[in-house]
Amino acid sequence: MSSYQLRDTATRQLLAHGLADYAATETELDRLDDRLEHDLAANGEGAGRIRLRLDVEKVTGGITETVGHHVLILGVDDPTHPLPTL
Question: Does pTM surpass 0.85?
Answer without folding.
Answer: no
